């Protein structure tokens, strides 16, 4: 094996009889940020969701092939899916804080996973996650306020704090900035820089500049296939495939 944190081998995903992902293989290492780009409907979210079995919740979705997390089969019957989703956390396009306090949003995962023995431990975990998510100073005086009272950008950082509170190994982000203004977007991008190295990060984005800014490697998907995967600088300046070139130069997609 390589030093892959996540390894996909010949992965295909079907919705009923329709194939949305076609024979995708890739490795993601622990210290990198990988961007997924490609036209709408090409399967980026579908593939991302295979990595922590979020597709299990989609009634007619079926996954073929193998996903390994540290060499361990994610789809093995013995895999505990709740634990898997703590190890491989997810941040969605639309911030989705629970209708609970800011504190409770962050404490939820650690409490399910028994990470805190005492209230003091939990206070420390919550503060640490909010600090790492760059939100602590803005919320420290109103931890009891509902998470839904925060601005969109703050809610998204709260969701990131919630994901990192359980000390995951991988964070999957599906267009995490698409509902945010440029300032909130810059905060999230800064955050990704700060988190890099601590977690493997996969980010789906339609923003080419964002992919170029935050990622070390970029995967271009089209029509369910992984067309090209390489160093971000190569993908954006010197792609091998014609279809990649067409997409990044805006000729379609
Ligand atoms: N729950 C579902 N049931 C049936 N088909 C689905 C379902 N979810 C996605 N699809 C189909 O699978 C294909 C890939 O969709 P997916 O959402 O993965 O694309 P995407 O690359 O993330 O697109 P976007 O950039 O618009 O978010 C599309 O054709 C879509 O219509
Ligand atoms: Mg999508």
Name its key features.
253 residues, alpha/beta, Rossmann fold, four-stranded antiparallel sheet, 10 strands, globular, binds adenosine-5'-triphosphate, binds magnesium ion
Write structural notes for this entry.
- The chain is an alpha/beta fold and 253 residues long.
- It has one domain: P-loop containing nucleotide triphosphate hydrolases (Rossmann fold, 3-Layer(aba) Sandwich).
- Helix content is 36%, strand content 26%.
- It is built from ten helices and ten strands.
- A six-stranded mixed β-sheet has the order 6-7-8-3-9-10, sandwiched between helices. The protein has a four-stranded antiparallel β-sheet with strand order 2-1-4-5, with helices on one face.
- A hairpin with a 2-residue loop joins strand 1 (4-15) and strand 2.
- The chain is globular and about 55 Å long.
- The protein binds adenosine-5'-triphosphate and magnesium ion (MG).
- Adenosine-5'-triphosphate binds next to helix 1.
- Keywords: ATP-binding, Nucleotide-binding, Phosphate transport, Transport.
- GO terms for molecular function: ATP binding; ATP hydrolysis activity; phosphate transmembrane transporter activity.
- This is Phosphate transport system ATP-binding protein.
């Amino acid at each position: 094996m390589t030093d892959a944190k996540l390894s996909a081998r010949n992965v295909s995903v079907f919705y009923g009889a329709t194939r949305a992902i076609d024979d995708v293989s890739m490795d993601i290492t622990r210290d990198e940020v990988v961007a997924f780009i490609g036209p709408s409907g090409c399967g980026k979210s579908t593939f991302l969701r295979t990595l922590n079995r979020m597709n299990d919740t989609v009634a007619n979705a079926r996954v073929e092939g193998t996903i390994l997390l540290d060499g361990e089969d994610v789809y093995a019957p013995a895999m505990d899916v709740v634990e898997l989703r703590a190890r491989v956390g997810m941040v969605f396009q639309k911030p989705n804080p629970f209708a609970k306090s800011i504190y409770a949003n962050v404490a939820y995962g650690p409490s399910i996973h028994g990470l805190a023995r005492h209230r003091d431990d939990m206070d420390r975990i919550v503060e640490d996650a909010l600090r790492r998510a760059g939100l602590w100073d803005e919320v420290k005086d109103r931890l009891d306020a509902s998470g839904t009272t925060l601005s969109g950008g703050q809610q998204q950082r709260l969701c990131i704090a919630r994901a990192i509170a359980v000390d995951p190994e991988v964070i999957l982000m599906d267009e995490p900035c698409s509902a945010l203004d440029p300032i909130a977007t810059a905060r999230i991008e800064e955050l990704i820089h700060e988190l890099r190295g601590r977690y493997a990060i996969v980010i789906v984005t339609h923003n080419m500049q964002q992919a170029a800014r935050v990622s070390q490697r970029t995967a271009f998907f089209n029509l369910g296939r992984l067309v090209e995967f390489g160093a971000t600088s190569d993908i954006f300046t010197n792609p091998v495939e014609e279809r990649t070139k067409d997409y990044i130069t805006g000729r379609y997609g």
